[in-house]
Amino acid sequence: MRLLRAELRKLNRPLLWGVTAAAALFCVLLAVGGSSNARQEARGGRAEAEVAAAHTAAQLDPLAAGAEAAGLMASLPGALALALLAGGHVGGEWSQRTLKNLLTQHGRRWQVLAAKLASLWLAGVGLVAACWAALAVAGPILVRVNHLPGPLSRSPRRPGGPARRSGGRCWCWPCSRWSGCWRRC
User: Fold this and answer.
1) Is residue 77 packed enough to be buried (19+ CB in 10 Å), middle (13-18) or exposed (0-12)?
2) I need a surface site. Which of 60, 72, 91, 172 has the fewest CB within 10 A?
């Protein structure tokens, strides 16, 4: 436990915070692109595009953002971020010439290497949490800005779905309200 605390203390450096900020920004930029593409496709009026836009809005929900963040960190950007952190972590020991002293001072080398690996794993969990937090904040904003339908809303023009009617008014999907709008539902 003492070794793990020491490795986490060594890992707490500007490189970790820079990689975390870059990963969170990358997650948000991917969400911005996805929501913008969904909005552009939904403007065409095709039912499949509207369903895809609702699916995109569901992925930007704060709870579903955790799965998106974990998926992103399990792919190439996450592997690159962890490789950068691992290189900085081991490279810092190498350049300061403390790795040899550390391995000879502590009798069991596998414990030192296991502590390094565990600290990198915890840093990876922190990266996922940071991306999740960034997407949880940015997701609802992107849904609102891009006028994506809510994940539970149904379009009256959706194939097989009946138009919702209430008192002579209908649910207008483009306007997201009950009204008799310029589009005749």
Assistant:
1) middle
2) 91
